[in-house]
Design brief:
The complex is a heterodimer of chains A (111) and B (110). Chain A is mostly beta strands and 111 residues long. Chain A contains no helices and eleven strands. Helix content of chain A is 0%, strand content 50%. In chain A, strands 2, 4, 5, 6, 9, 10 and 11 form a seven-stranded mixed beta sheet that branches. Chain A has a four-stranded antiparallel beta sheet with strand order 1-3-8-7, with no helix packed on it. Chain A starts with a strand and ends with a strand. In chain A, 33% of the residues are buried. With 110 residues, chain B is mainly beta. Chain B starts with a strand and ends with a strand. Classes of the chains: A mainly beta (111), B mainly beta (110). At the A-B interface, β5, β9 and β10 of A face β4, β5, β9 and β10 of B.
């Protein structure tokens, strides 16, 4: 089992460019999450998906969109990247309210 | 005011010492999580607890629901325990969402 995988591991974008961060899990979990982690701040929830076909906004959704493509995959899209979106992005999954399993993270730099 | 406060922010210890990291929260919760993040690394869940105490190897987590407080203890600390330890709570009524503390950076010197 690979657990939770994320691609890419690292990305540099110019302001205004778009990109999609990919996340997949092989644990048959219903719930998936996207977080961002910034220095001096705790992890903050961007979007989550309680089950296939549903998505909901978290604490900091502005500038992002998500797609729960199927039970395995949950992607995060930046339509027009801004320097404020420079961060480390983590995807996670869980079986309902149980332990969350995190991916290795994507480091994004927006110039 | 943050809903989840951790103390200390930074902690340096000598190998073998007993470590305590504290987490206080100000809201009603259904569960509390402790996570570990090594420098440049991913995040691993250590414990999820809603009452009492849990132990795994040299790690012990306790929670006092009435006092809204949890502690993570590390016995016989080792340099490989050096990491950021993160407390997170599932707020009552928030579905599966977690609210995170800012983390405690632990450095264990040989």
């Amino acid at each position: 089992n690979a657990g939770v995988t994320q691609t890419p591991k690292f990305q540099v974008l110019k302001t205004g460019q778009s990109m999609t961060l990919q996340c997949a899990q092989d644990m048959n979990h219903n719930s998936m999450y996207w977080y961002r982690q910034d220095p001096g701040m705790g992890l903050r929830l961007i979007y989550y998906s309680a089950s296939e076909g549903t998505t909901d906004k978290g604490e900091v959704p502005n500038g992002y969109n998500v797609s729960r493509l199927n039970k395995r995959e949950f992607s995060l899209r930046l339509e027009s990247a801004a320097p404020s979106q420079t961060s480390v992005y983590f995807c996670a999954s869980s079986e309902s309210e149980e332990t969350q399993y995190f991916g290795p993270g994507t480091r994004l730099l927006v110039l | 005011k943050n809903e989840v406060e951790q103390s200390p922010q930074n902690l340096t210890a000598q190998e073998g010492e007993f470590i305590t990291i504290n987490c206080s929260y100000s809201v009603g919760i259904s569960a509390l999580h402790w996570l570990q993040q090594h420098p440049g690394g991913g995040i691993v869940s250590l414990f999820m607890l809603s009452s009492g105490k849990k132990k795994h190897g040299r790690l012990i987590a306790t929670i006092n629901i009435q006092e809204k407080h949890s502690s993570l203890h590390i016995t016989a600390s080792h340099p490989r325990d050096s990491a950021v330890y993160i407390c997170a709570v599932r707020v009552l009524g928030s579905n599966y969402k977690l609210t995170f503390g800012k983390g405690t950076l632990l450095t264990v010197n040989p």
